[in-house]
Amino acid sequence: MDSTSSATGGGSTHYDARVIFNYDLLSNALLLNELGMLNSDASAVVEQYFNMTIDDSSYLYNEGAEAFYSYRDYLNANAEKRRAGGKLLSFKDFIATAQKKDYNGPSQVLNVLEDGRLGALTDFKLVKGEKDS
Question: What is the pTM of this model?
Answer without folding.
Answer: 0.74
